[in-house]
Amino acid sequence: MSESLNFSETVKKIYLIIVLVFSLVPLCLSCLQDENKQSAYDITVDLDYRAFQPGEVIKLSIKDISDIKVVQSRFLGKKYCFGKGRNASEALVFIGLDLGLKPGTYQMDISVLYDDGKIQHLKKKISVVEKEFPVKRLWVEEKFVTPPPKVHERIRWESELLKAVYDIFTPRWLGDGKFIIPSEGKTVPNFGERRIFNNKPHSSHSGVDITSPFGSPVKASNSGKIVLANDLYFAGKTVIIDHGLGVFTLYCHFSRILAKRGAFIKRGEIIGEIGATGRVTGPHLHWGVKILGSRVDPFSLLSLEFE
Description:
This protein is α+β, with helices and mostly antiparallel strands. It is 19% helix and 39% strand. The chain is built from three helices and 22 strands. It has helices at residues 2-39, 152-166, 298-302, and strands at 46-49, 57-62, 68-75, 78-81, 83-84, 91-96, 104-114, 119-128, 135-138, 186-188, 194-197, 200-204, 207-211, 217-219, 224-232, 236-244, 247-254, 256-257, 264-265, 270-273, 285-291, 294-296. Strands 10, 13, 15, 16, 17, 19, 21 and 22 form an eight-stranded antiparallel sheet that branches. Strands 1-2-6-5 form a four-stranded antiparallel sheet, with no helix packed on it. The chain has a four-stranded antiparallel sheet with strand order 4-3-7-8, with no helix packed on it. The longest helix has 38 residues, at 2-39.
């Protein structure tokens, strides 16, 4: 009788083990399915840049956005929205490290909202290293150092106009391929130069100068929309092109403007001629870049790759 009871208990134990094992199999499979589902949300954000220094640009791109609804990045208190590239399946965003940015390690946060409502967060540390900029003394007409009262209202109005232009945000990329140098003249790598006009300190030089004979043609460095074609007090005859996603190129001191506001311009098309209008020491082109208000060295744009 005792042996019979022991045999019965053994059978029960085996039965319970079998039931337990088979009940765990679906659970384990479910876990594996969840893990596979999680890995489907992994994305790669590619960074393209020349250096992490003041005045540089960082291009972030995601190759496949077929199941992505929105991508945003936050950096230095600004929100950057990814927009569609020339290839509709690609998302791009450009982040400018402003000329005045202090050295240090900064965190970049990237948020991805998928079509099914899932949100993924990515973080990236950006270590910005110091960059030295030279000091240069220049002599110009005194009216461009201490403007007379009669032009104060004009200067104020033009300042508001420029702010309104740079506040424009086109949510898709208008550029076509790599950026090009807009003039065949001699390029002076003087971005960030701390300038002293007529022995009076002024703001840093936020572009590069290209010296070329008077009347030489100036080309659009990339495709985009002309958002300004005006004669400005300090910058002279000026053209600004919106390339989309908060990226603008600036061309100053023309003798003639050959582009109209509102027109779409292709990379390499002529937009003006070299001149000496505004605050200058001689004929040349001032070529500048702004990305959501950040002053960027145009040569950092030239280093970026585009498909």
